[in-house]
Prior knowledge:
The structure holds 2 protein chains of 2 kinds.
Chain A: H1 3-27, H2 29-32, E1 40-46, H3 56-71, E2 74-80, H4 83-96, E3 103-108, H5 111-117, E4 121-122, H6 134-140, E5 146-159, H7 165-168, H8 179-182, E6 184-187, H9 193-210, H10 215-221, E7 224-226, H11 229-237, E8 243-247, H12 250-258, E9 263-266, E10 269-270, E11 273-286, H13 292-303, H14 305-308, H15 311-314, E12 318-319, E13 340-341, H16 348-366
Parallel strand pairs in A: 1-2, 1-3, 6-7, 6-8, 11-13
Antiparallel strand pairs in A: 3-11, 4-11, 5-8, 5-9, 5-11, 5-12, 10-11
Helix pairs in contact in A: 10-16
Chain B: H1 8-29, H2 35-42, H3 45-76, H4 81-96, H5 99-110, H6 115-119, H7 129-154, H8 158-167, H9 172-200, H10 204-210, H11 217-227, H12 231-256, H13 276-303, E1 306-307, E2 311-312, H14 315-320, E3 325-326, E4 331-332, H15 333-372, H16 378-389, H17 395-420, H18 424-432, H19 437-448, H20 450-466, H21 469-474, H22 482-491, H23 495-515, H24 517-523
Antiparallel strand pairs in B: 1-2, 3-4
Helix pairs in contact in B: 1-15, 1-16, 2-12, 3-7, 3-9, 3-13, 4-7, 4-13, 4-23, 4-24, 5-10, 5-13, 7-9, 7-10, 8-9, 9-12, 11-12, 13-23, 15-17, 15-20, 16-17, 17-20, 20-23, 22-23
Amino acid sequence: MRREYVIVLTVIAVIVIGVVGYLVLSGYPPLAGGSASENVVVVYTYESLLAWGPDPDSVYKKVFDGFTNATGIKVEIRKFSDAGEMLSEVIRQVKEGKVEADVVIGIDNIQIIKAKEEGVLEPFTPSNIGEIYEWLIQDYDPEHYAIPYDYGVIAFVYDTSYISPDQMSNLTFESFYGDLGKTLVVEDPRTSSTGLAFLLYQIGVYEKYLGKDWTQWWRDVKPKVVKSWGDAYDLFLNEQYHIVVSYGTDPAYSYFFYNSTRYGAALATYNGKPLAWLQIEGIGIVKGAPHRKAAEKFVEWFLSKNVQEEIPLNNWMYPANKNVELPEAYKYAINPLDVELVNNRLTQEEIAANLDNWINEWLSAVSG
Amino acid sequence: MRVRVLDAGSAIAFLLLITLIYAPAISGLAPGLSVAELGKVLSQDFIRRAFIFSLTQASISAALATAIGGIAAIALTTISSKAASIIRALALLSFMAPPMIVVSGFTALYGRGGILSLAIPPLRALGEGFGGVVAAHVFYNIPLAMNLVYSTLVAVPSELVDAVRIYSGGRLWPVIKRVVIPYASPALIASYALTFIYCFASFAVPLTLGGPAYSTLEVYIYYFYRMLFDYGAAAATATVQLAVLAAATVLFTLAYTRLPPPPIGRRAVAVLPGRRYVKAASVAVLIAVAAYLTLPLMSVIIKSFLEPGNGFTLRGYERVFSPLFDQAIGTSGLRVIGNTLYFAMMTALVALTIGSFLAFTGGAVADALLTTLLAISPLTLAMGLLNIYGGLLPAPVLIIFAHTIAALPLVIKSLRLGFLRVGREIADAARVLGARGLLYFLRIVAPLSRSSYFVAAALAIVVSLGEFGATYLIARPEFYTLGIVIYSFRGVRDWPASYAASTVLLAMSASLLLLLSRRLERWM
């Protein structure tokens, strides 16, 4: 055979392999990930959902396999490093008109503003909504684009092996000028819902209580900023940083697991009164969800007492379902009802109007 | 090769360049080409800071990489050519290593609690922030500077070195001043400019090691495009970036055209006198450079077998090779491996086909157009590809396009070298006997430059395996590659899986490069 034929035939063969390869990759459902069948619900969430209990595997089975056993609907889960990243992906899907997600778990009371603005959720009123605290729903989203499933306050969690409780008593943001600030790790508000909540906490305290320029704190303290809550907590547990922006329930966690009060939680105070930012997390259905009916059933299942009673010891937040009793360890947690909430002075409307600017100003402050 | 603007081959070549590269590039930039958008972006403090940071870190990284690479190149000429070729192959591996692997390696070695930073605390400066970004960029670009400078030193005539040595009584400095510096300076300038370009538009390294305080403009392009969905701001940022890259590209082109043609199969002249202390110093330099270039990669391999705090594990590999749906990726690990191989193979095929055209018929104008490719960052091109072809073509095709564009400059360079080596006598004889155009190419040129085709294919595959930025912008989970899932696994903090994915990817690139190391050497 002449040489050029060999070359031409080789090229054709490779093209054929290429096309066949493409067809196999794009059309082979068991490997493709997506599923067209009605008997499935695609759930997006963040990686640490319900992952912090004594037996995460069995809780996971109870919540997700339990749903399948009860309804015959398979659950496909996709996890993101943080809720912010999850929301970005869902916005992208809706914009591109290729929606794959049915349910999102973990949209918090700030992200819900953006989610509604971008029109990525569809309102749904579950049949068991009466079991959820009404005040939470009012604070979170009275229009039911998403429904709260847990709540808790953002706090400075510190390691008492390095930081004494004395240093953290009567804490203010100003306390971080100096040594405390050097060992503080916070989350990036662009990618982490915890980070965004903390930013608003700090802005709220400076703007609404102290009447000072909030950006100065970031310029002067320059805390370590990482992408997600998980990254921040890793640095904290590895004893590389000794104060982490986390949740008021962390001491309860420490007591429950280690019978220890090694990890403390503190809030910034104003005139001796602790101020806190309440984070509420919700579950919602994506606009244009491919499996709407299954999604509705899943939301109701997730809000039911059966699932909600796993929240306190596995997600380490207060459950939104009022029929759930709190475990004993929660006496060490900061109860949102006992502190003054900065959220009451910084309304959702104000946040919606200013959020983009604030993030830009924050970026300017931390990049300086 | 003459410029034959009017013939069919050239026409196709230009058409390809325009549809594949220039139309997307312009379309990627277009939404930002307005006073309003540019003003909006430039009025942001953080963009101005990112601009300054991009500039500073790129200048410093380029200077360090060029200096260290240059010194290493001189040191290479003092050791045996076999040892030199092993070091150069190792160095190529670092240059081609996927960014996520390098970042993982730097974190493992120099991060807080890293292997080396625990022993020597000041090394922690290399693990994050400004120092981390510069250290990783230097890691990437030492090989580039080393190889460019080395290949010009190979071209130094040995008579010249001998003459200078005799006249100067065997002293070291005159040799450096009269031979090494004049010969190496175009290569030093070219590698400074090229390194500057790569560092200025760097994405994965500042994204992960820098954090918000140390972000490049490229990171903000991603931020505007993917997180804020502000396409205008993304394009305006890309435009600002383009201005700087274009200037650096001009500098690169000026210096590069002064480089001597790459010699074939020549041994380096020992430009330095063979004294014992010179040799000892050279060996010390090379060991230090080799350690700096290999340790991050080694640490990744080791960590892939370690469960944090729990000893040996294969769990990471089980996850990477699992056929089951993976929650962190959005598809199965096995499928990701399939995707990676598929994209790599298709990239090689498409890049070789288009590259043959451009290298064979394109001539000087196509060359110039290709050089300007350096000024267009991967994310700018990816945005443009999505703008123009996003609605028309499926994501995998776009990814293959993006990888092909990234691979083309290397592919064309290596094919061009192969074509040049087809002897003039053979070419003339073939022409006289009636072989022209396609026939001449298929019967004479292609078979005779087989070796450069192997090299070009290998390089295209390695580029595709390592590409991160454009794939990350375009791909949806079902088309993720290993380079992306390293990042996904990091996101859910499954370290063994992240390192295992890195190791698999590294093994693929390394085996290809080592397999072809003898041929590669002639290409470099």
